[in-house]
Amino acid sequence: MIKVGIVGGTGYTGVELLRILATHPDVELTAITSRKEDGLPVAEMFPSLRGRVDLAFSSPDKAKLTACDVVFFATPHGVAMAQAPELLAAGVKVIDLAADFRLQDTAAFEKWYKMPHSCPELLKEAAYGLVELNRDAIRKARIVGNPGCYPTTMQLGLAPLLKADAIDASHLIADCKSGVSGAGRKAEVATLFSEAGDNFKAYGVSGHRHSPETVERLQTLTMNKVGLLFVPHLVPMIRGMHSTIYARLTKEMDNVALQALFENAYVNEPFVDVMPFGSHPETRSTRASNMLRIALHRPNDGDTIVILVVQDNLVKGASGQAVQCMNLMFSLPETTGLLHVPVLP
Amino acid sequence: MIKVGIVGGTGYTGVELLRILATHPDVELTAITSRKEDGLPVAEMFPSLRGRVDLAFSSPDKAKLTACDVVFFATPHGVAMAQAPELLAAGVKVIDLAADFRLQDTAAFEKWYKMPHSCPELLKEAAYGLVELNRDAIRKARIVGNPGCYPTTMQLGLAPLLKADAIDASHLIADCKSGVSGAGRKAEVATLFSEAGDNFKAYGVSGHRHSPETVERLQTLTMNKVGLLFVPHLVPMIRGMHSTIYARLTKEMDNVALQALFENAYVNEPFVDVMPFGSHPETRSTRASNMLRIALHRPNDGDTIVILVVQDNLVKGASGQAVQCMNLMFSLPETTGLLHVPVLP
Amino acid sequence: MIKVGIVGGTGYTGVELLRILATHPDVELTAITSRKEDGLPVAEMFPSLRGRVDLAFSSPDKAKLTACDVVFFATPHGVAMAQAPELLAAGVKVIDLAADFRLQDTAAFEKWYKMPHSCPELLKEAAYGLVELNRDAIRKARIVGNPGCYPTTMQLGLAPLLKADAIDASHLIADCKSGVSGAGRKAEVATLFSEAGDNFKAYGVSGHRHSPETVERLQTLTMNKVGLLFVPHLVPMIRGMHSTIYARLTKEMDNVALQALFENAYVNEPFVDVMPFGSHPETRSTRASNMLRIALHRPNDGDTIVILVVQDNLVKGASGQAVQCMNLMFSLPETTGLLHVPVLP
Amino acid sequence: MIKVGIVGGTGYTGVELLRILATHPDVELTAITSRKEDGLPVAEMFPSLRGRVDLAFSSPDKAKLTACDVVFFATPHGVAMAQAPELLAAGVKVIDLAADFRLQDTAAFEKWYKMPHSCPELLKEAAYGLVELNRDAIRKARIVGNPGCYPTTMQLGLAPLLKADAIDASHLIADCKSGVSGAGRKAEVATLFSEAGDNFKAYGVSGHRHSPETVERLQTLTMNKVGLLFVPHLVPMIRGMHSTIYARLTKEMDNVALQALFENAYVNEPFVDVMPFGSHPETRSTRASNMLRIALHRPNDGDTIVILVVQDNLVKGASGQAVQCMNLMFSLPETTGLLHVPVLP
Q1: How far is C270 from chain A (nearest CA, A)?
Q2: Is residue C238 in some structural domain?
Q3: Same domain, C194 and C246
Q4: Judgement on whether residues D307 and D195 belong to the same structural domain of the protein
Q5: Residues in chain A with pLDDT < 50?
């Protein structure tokens, strides 16, 4: 059994990790930390876990995280990089669901996250945790930076085209939409039910942290200069993410070839589903599961193709993907504990 | 492996059966019928099942239901009783998620469902599928009438008190609230998003089909005459049911004794969770799981106790409960395939 | 023109006051205070008011509230009673949307609101602002305590029956449901979209501040001792309140007489609509309007009657009612500026 | 008083017309037709109108539409063009909220609406009802084709740039999002609460009726060839529309000039609000009002500008715009009866 610790389990990625790990056959939940909730049984904060998770939160000093095999950080940015060195030194693997180990460009990290990076040498060895594009590195990694939710959809949606050098990489547009849980479980006016409900808006149009992460990773897939216009929006739903991606073809390709390009790219991927050409994937078709679905369109048979990508932002976009990484890091079958059927309706 | 057939899998209880059975370790999905959708792969109607359910709908005449071990009816009222005799004759067990085998009083059935009962003799042998109150009969049954969603909450909320003869059975009030999926997947104006959304209303206050079913069953628990005032309401949420039940104590009982009464009643029940006295269970704490949670209140230390009951109307209130019955009927551990952790948020 | 000041305009009752007063033909918005937002144009916080409200927030010391004709307090409990004496001394009328001037029983006030009442002598002269039951007192008042949202529905739903001595006043049950905006615009986890959405729960079952207020007022309508069991619930919708009230008849009355009792009680009321017997009022039929609708039911022709009451909690349940009081206090037609047609869908 | 008739008042644009016209000071609601609901008081179908609209539906043969001054068609496509000739002959003005009089290209009409146009000569004289871009023609028109909801946002968002010849007209992208009420009040599975709720999807990506309409109108604003990629999405909210429009600048223009271009274009428009550069308009800031709001962004100071446009799809996107046209056609101040303050929250 893999002994698992979770740092910061009071947010949505934390409780989602607990939901997934509670039925993972090879995992023993060992510790979950929260300074503020020391002593509180997890199931008291999240009654959905009554009878399923017996752990109580413990303050970081009491929790013996170094006795774990792996520790997930479901914390604000900056926490994982502060604690990772000690854990790694003790032989514990680290998976950070925040941004500390995503961006190799520390200057960009500092610009967007407003803090210096405290362990750039560890950052260098960290693997970017997007399994479908980085499986080998993750398998060997001691430390994984789990991708952002938006970047997951943009990368999986664009990778086959960039690798095939089939689109104009310099002018990509990603019009993305996220459910409100993506904003986390912080008490803020903007995400109150009466503010976010029955409402729709864009945010961060002038710049968003997921842009540099995505560009840095996309750039590894192509020799051409990547230019990305990323516009996130807030949808009045709890879970779900939908990215509508626009790219202009630079190669002659008919729709059959386009579709084949994607199907071949993901034919062996258990968590990427390429739907028939012209489909309209719904976010709910992935709800509470680790699936990501992609569909292609080419309106008016023009040179712009539209790539639709959906996922559950808390699963494939966060905690499910983290467990997928863990499975790899511990040589388990990649799908272990992750085969939830999406909840519909 | 149990060979399972489903009649009428295009509604919400049908797709929920498929979600549950797709990961049930002892089940082989064998046939699913729909006259209208003959030939359509199930996963085309419900993309959430892509890669997980390979069946296609087949018209009733083609589906070899008699080769199944058990057939679930996720159909409108009247269908199961028409087909049950042939299936039973062929040695197939039957679980009806509609009302054909719930009410023993055929006159009441005919009054509320506007059709004569076509096989009253089978009705007599049918077991009412509320496991916690009828486990032995279900275990031996060839045919089960799966309870209504509201009746499940009302019975499990009141049973300990009625059995203990602790309340005035003649004046029970159940103010119940259901998510919109309870109305099914029929195209109707009243359940459109723009009608049911951001809105709340009572319905069927003058009379609802679940009243006679509940009263008939509650009456089996007490010698006193049961009088029930049941008022259902429609909540702008997809899944979830919350019943607020009011009953007046006729016995001296302090709150500790009250709580113990419930805890003892359900101590061995894997799917009934008695929460601490004074809790406020949330519907989402049961979402997509087979759990039902109960909490007790006694405002102002008066003689009226308030029983709060929550469940997912599509799981414990329908398809999960049906699978729980199936497990019993086939001598499997009752929780087999039913240990989904609730999805929160 | 009536010069109007608003203290604390950053919450939902504040912005709703602004929405209503912006088109009130006899009002001149003069000042709106917020210590925190001093200098911020109101329309920057609430873009819905762009081009319609030109005021900026000003800190309380700068705002010349004593130059107003009337000041509304859309503040937390305790603020109005601190400032009312000075305003009244300056000849300014006061309408408090919080609880400072609702309860005449100061001991109850102190128990439920955890603060001493700072001006009990003013409290004595304050009029309770439920127009339909207290019109004459409001007309003459210098200071009005605007009713709570739940109490408005319970009182208007029960008044005709209590006045007619037709029900058992000692055992009233009000099962009430409110949209999330009733919890205000405070940053709190419990009212986040991802917490309150797709979810339903009861709260405050063991006791809620609106209980003593309602009981105190109901007691003025009957010689019998009032006993009320009030159970509030949170509905995943923004606006709207639905109260389902249960009372046992103590008089022989047929349904025609019952209906007539209510119709006669409210025949001249512009904001109370008695719907046909057996109707199911929807909250949305009052959305963004000052209407309150009532419908009566008598299930199984028994002795329990069910009274359904709906309103928009922010209008008739708060800011609309406050403006209705203001109209009376300034001898305007009661409906002035309040004839918005409900927004449906 | 203008005598107004409405054909087909049982849908959302119909009830929204009624909401607006019920308080319009110069309108007398004279007739509302529905073959199916003949004799039913309008307020029985829409209780929000109780006490505010006294009309009953009448069958088309009984309703004396020729005695009206103007008739609104809130009907499916094809109805208005069948009845318009007779009405016009009787001197009645006609405003069609469907598509019969939007597209001058009858071949495109027939392709997209699957029916021949029955009165192409009337079509020629019809004015396209987008007031801000076609005011003079509407003022003089006997017959108006009210714009589609999406086209309204796309045209008002792009017009200043196209007129200034500042963008590449051949490669416009409009990623649009609509609340569910845009799909109308028809009983359909896809718009059930449990289907459209907590979900997000694109639809009609390969082609949508609002494309040819928008292109035809945009083409009138520029000498260059217009190419538009329009991708609509369904948002789980009732009202509201958000268009995110991408266009590449072909002229040197700094952000101050861009902003000035829009502010100057709409400086005298009562229903178009140009927000500060870099704003994120929310759909709810227009809810239940005739306002449309626009904000500009230029991410990374690149050559692509992002235009955000929000409106209430049922008001500025449908019924409010139709009343705005009517005001013009009858020489009333354009804002008459249309100054509702948006409902927030």
Answers
A1: 29
A2: yes
A3: yes
A4: yes
A5: none
For residue C104, what are the domain limits? Answer: 2-125
pTM across the whole model: 0.97
**Chains with ≥3 Cβ pairs under 8 A against B?**
A, C, D
CB-CB neighbors (< 8 A) of A237 in chain C: 197
| Residues C238 and C304 both lie in one domain | yes
Contact D32, D5 (CB under 8 A): yes
| A140 assigned to some structural domain | no
C128-132, C223-227, D124-128, D299-303: the lowest-pLDDT one: D299-303
Which residue from A minimizes the CA distance to B238? A345
How many distinct structural domains can be found in chain D?
2
Q: What pLDDT digit, counting tens, does each position of C84-122 carry? A: 999 999 999 999 999 999 999 999 999 999 999 999 999
Which residues on A lie below 8 Å from D299 (Cβ)? 205-207, 229-231
Mark whether B47 and B194 lie in a shared domain.
no
Q: Are the beta carbons of D185 and B194 separated by less than 8 Å?
A: yes
pLDDT tens sequence across B42-62: 999 999 999 999 999 999 888
A231: CATH: 3.30.360.10
Query: Is B211 a member of any domain?
Result: yes
- Residue D142 within a domain: no
Q: Which of D194, D198, D214, D246 to mutate to test the interface with A (most CBs of A within 10 A)?
A: D198
Is D306 found in the same domain as D157? Answer: yes
What is the SS3 assignment for C283? helix
**In terms of domains, do C180 and C234 share one?**
yes
Nearest to D194 among B12, B194, B198 (CB): B12
The domain spanning residue A119 has which CATH number?
3.40.50.720
Whether residues B120 and B185 share a domain: the answer is no
Q: Are residues A71 and A168 in the same domain?
A: no
Per-residue pLDDT reduced to its tens digit, B160-175: 999 999 999 999 999 9
Q: What is the pLDDT of residues B313-326, one digit of tens each?
A: 999 999 999 999 99
Active site residue B68: no
Residues sharing a CB contact under 8 Å with residue A91, sequence separation 6 or more, in sequence order:
none
Three-state SS letters, chain A: CEEEEEECCCCHHHHHHHHHHCCCCCEEEEEEECCCCCCCEHHHHCHHHCCCCCCEEECCCCCCHHHCCEEEECCCCCHHHHHHHHHHHCCCEEEECCCCCCCCCHHHHHHHHCCCCCCHHHHHHCEECCHHHHHHHHHHCCEEECCCHHHHHHHHHHHHHHHCCCECCCCEEEEEEEEHHHHCCCCCHHHEHHHHCCCCEECCCCCCCHHHHHHHHHHCCCCCCCCEEEEEEEECCCCCEEEEEEEEECCCCCHHHHHHHHHHHCCCCCCEEECCCCCCCEHHHHCCCCCEEEEEECHHHCCEEEEEEEECCCHHHHHHHHHHHHHHHCCCCCCCCCCCCCCCC
Q: Quote the strand ranges of C64-105, DSSP E.
A: 70-73, 93-96
CB contact under 8 A, B48 and A341: yes
User: What is the distance in angstroms between the Cα of D19 and the nearest Cα belonging to chain C?
Assistant: 6
